[in-house]
Amino acid sequence: MKKFFANVKNWFIARKPTKRRIIQLYAALLTNANLKGFATGKIYTGDTKKMCVPGLNCYSCPGAVGACPLGALQDSLAQSGRSFPSYILGILLLFGLMLGRVICGFLCPFGLIQELLYKIRTPKLRKNRFTRILSYFKYVLLAIVIAIPIIYAGIPSFCKYVCPAGTFGGAIGLLSNPANTDFFGMLGYLFTWKFCVLVVVVVASVFIYRFFCRFICPLGAIYSLFCKISLLGVKLDKNKCIDCGLCIQGCKMDIKHVGDHECIQCGECISVCPVQAISWKGSKIFLKNTTPLAQPAVAEGEKINLLEIAKSNSDLTSAATANTVSQTITEDISQTASEELTVNVTNCVVEEENTAETVSYSENCKGEKLKAVKAAFKRPRFVVEFVAWVVATALLIGALIGYGVSKEKLTLVYKVGDKCPEFILSTYVSDNDVKSVSTYGIDKVTVINYWYTDCDPCKKELPEFEKVYEDYDGAIDMFVIHSYSAVPSTGVQHFLDTETDKNGRVWNTYKLVFAQDTEELNTYAMLGGKYAYPMTVIVNASGKITFVKQGSCSEEILREEIENAFN
Question: How far is CA 552 from each of CA 103, 314, 482, rounded to the nearest angstrom?
């Protein structure tokens, strides 16, 4: 029995996650610390959402506590006609100079998802010349991502048409909650397209290491510009390097040399180098005799003859160098990594290969362990790591508790049968020249429609609403209220004056009254809105809400519900 538990223990030790994997899991949890959002199906809208997290993490994910830098970049560029996007550019510059693509290797949640998908046992497509060429596509996509919001103000092209992280974290994260079943009625061709993109990325990531990161991600393309100058990352000592090529061979990314623009700074090449020519930047500032942080990037159980490869790629003139290389000729790298994890502890366990029992710990053994722990605390590396993990753990626990008990601004929600709240909103200049819209003194059926300029389903249904409004010939009021959070950089008034509907008609010729919602009132949420547009509300002559429809509303349903409000 003791041997069984010893084997179980050894199995877990051998498969213990690397420090990089632990950091990845930590970063994913910290950036999605609003765990109650997954339970309630609501997006966190607190103060921290105004700040950007380093990695690709969708703003609309129920757990997200910060904004995605790529989404913020597109929004800032769309607003650049009025002001310089200094905040997001400054944030990206800070992230790039401090961390570079360390963010990709350690902090990006979507990168972690791809790595876990790649662990599924299937035939793998190895990197080659074609994948190296294809890796430049993300820079082309970056240029498009930057150009489109500037040319076509207000269009976050990547978030809207491509981003699989947004589809997975935002769309599916919200749709999977039973509280958001109304959202299914709002899905259209755009969601179908993005869902297909997500499926392609997920399937491809099973066969190709970090498919999205290598070929598509514009955020990775931005951070890659800082690889050579970032404060953290891996570095190569060319004086020690023997050009054996093991670092390039073991790396799954499309690198040409250690630390180039395709390197995600994961540090796995450090353990592979036979002459310790690869190390961490800045490690000597905090630590001495730094040991590798991560396990090698070589398949489990694979053996590499370092001496043969080194001799074939470099002229070994130093006997000391040859001895260093020959020590690793038949090393099983995955076994070596697991052995490193059990130093000074497993020495206290005596195992006989042909016996059924494991010798139990003695008092002397416990004393040896205590000495090992005391010795560890005297090593600078151990002390730095210990303090760092204590601080990081405290930060994570504090974030989880803080977001778990946080209370956002409460908005009283009115439902069907309730008296419609009274509010006044300013309107945009149109033919009827109404200066404000008010629910005070309702004496006839009123239709309220919520929209925004970049919402295709919203714009598609408005001509039908206009037709219904004209048919009732003044017997009803119809207000079209624009979202407060999605105002285009050129302004809603400019859109109404210059843009046309699907029939070529300029929007400001409509008889509908276009109004503007405000963040203070947030009448959209007040009437039951749940982060998606369009939404239609009908109020009868006595001021009671008779109909609320989240999503597109057909002309037939609209006419039917207006008649019901009259009765």
Answer: 40, 68, 15
Helix (H, G, I), strand (E, B) or coil at 547: strand
Lowest mean pLDDT: which of 14-28, 137-151, 165-179?
Answer: 137-151
Q: Does domain 424-566 have CATH number 3.40.30.10?
A: yes
Backbone φ, ψ for residue 157 (5° rounding): -55, -45
Burial 385-408 (b: 16+ CB within 10 A, else e): beeeeeeeeeeeeebbeebeeeee
Query: Would you say residue 451 has pLDDT above 90?
Result: yes
C-alpha distances (whole Å) from 117 to each of 31, 121, 201, 206, 339 are: 20, 9, 10, 5, 26
| Average pLDDT along the chain | 81
| C-alpha distance from residue 520 to each of 334, 410, 428, 484 (Å) | 58, 12, 19, 9
pLDDT of 133 over the 90 cut: yes
Q: Which amino acid, 61?
A: C
Enumerate the β-bridge partners of residue 199: none
Residue 406: predicted pLDDT: 74
Domain ranges in the chain? Answer: 19-226, 234-398, 424-566
Strands 513-516 and 535-539: unpaired
Give the containing element (helix H, strand E) for 84.
none
Say if residues 526 and 412 touch (Cβ distance below 8 Å): yes
Alpha-helical runs (H) found in 208-296: 211-215, 218-224, 246-250, 269-272, 283-286
Question: What tens digit of pLDDT does each residue of 221-267 get?
Answer: 999 999 999 999 999 999 999 999 999 999 999 999 999 999 999 99
The residues facing 235 across adjacent strands are: 279
| Lowest-confidence pick of 122-131, 300-309, 551-560 | 300-309
Start-to-end Cα distance in the chain: 79
pTM above 0.90, yes or no: no
Distance of CA 83 to the CA centre of its chain: 27
279 DSSP β-pair partners: 235
pLDDT at 498 over 70: yes
366-378: b or e for each residue (b if 16 or more CB lie within 10 Å)?
A: eebeeeeeeeeee
Q: Residue 366's pLDDT is what?
A: 59
Q: What CA–CA distance (Å, rounded) separates 462 from 509? A: 13
Under DSSP, the state recorded for 291 is P
The count of C-alpha atoms lying within 13 angstroms of the C-alpha of 562, restricted to the half-sphere facing its C-beta, is 22
Beta strand pairing call for 477-482 and 513-516: parallel
Contact 445, 565 (CB under 8 A): yes
Q: Are 206 and 120 in contact (CB under 8 A)?
A: yes
User: Given a cut of 60, is residue 334 above it in pLDDT?
Assistant: no
Amino acid at position 282, single letter:
G
